Amino acid sequence: VQRALEATTTLDEIMSAPDQGIPSSLLARAGCVAVIPNVKKVGFIFGGRYGRGLVSCRTEGGWSRPSFVSITGGSFGFQIGAQSTDFVLVFVNREAANQLLGDNFTLGADASVSAGPVGRTAEAGTDATLRTEIYAYSRSRGLFAGVSLEGANLATDLEANEDAYGAPLGPEELLLNDSGRLPAEFATFV
After folding, report:
1. Burial 127-156 (b: 16+ CB within 10 A, else e)
2. Distance between CA atoms of 76 and 74, rounded to whole angstroms?
3. What is the CA angle 34-35-38, rounded to 5?
4. What global pTM score does this model have?
5. In Å, how far from its chain's centre is CA 164?
6. Burial track 6-20 (b if 16+ CB lie within 10 A, e otherwise)
7. 112 has a pLDDT exceeding 60
8. CB neighbours (10 Å) of residue 24?
9. Which stretches of the chain are DSSP H helices?
10. Whether the Cβ atoms of residue 89 and residue 30 lie closer than 8 Å to each other
């Protein structure tokens, strides 16, 4: 429940930022939207990233029940600091959305990810090479400069899905249809 509330608050705050929100034209054609608040990144030579959130996909009847996800990643190199970042990932084509149906995938390797256009009237096309599958929006607090999701692993949190729905539901059962019980706590997110 707490994760759903944090994801809902994050999405509301990013969308209400004056002239800095996700373009409505992009959301109108989005296949799926993932919200992962408070992704922690720490590093001193070796670095790590971890966060948990929700994803919902467009269905014939609206939006699917949310599936819980986690994001993890490691890095090596000259780095020092700590950071907390809220992410919204907008999946703009079916191939990218289909990646969510597996157990996990790597952003930047299995699906291309780019910084998303901002502003209410921004044109939400694809990148110059027509390969962007996911647009990433972020809001950071901390000491790291720059935010990148390349190489991060996005995985279904099956344990959280089971806790939330009372049954071991995978991403296919949750993201491909709009039927089934939606706990009241998650209705605001959807």
Report:
1. eeeeebbbbbbbbbeeebeebbbeebbbbb
2. 7
3. 145
4. 0.78
5. 18
6. bbbebbeebeeeeee
7. no
8. 12
9. 2-15, 24-29, 94-99, 158-165, 171-175, 184-187
10. no
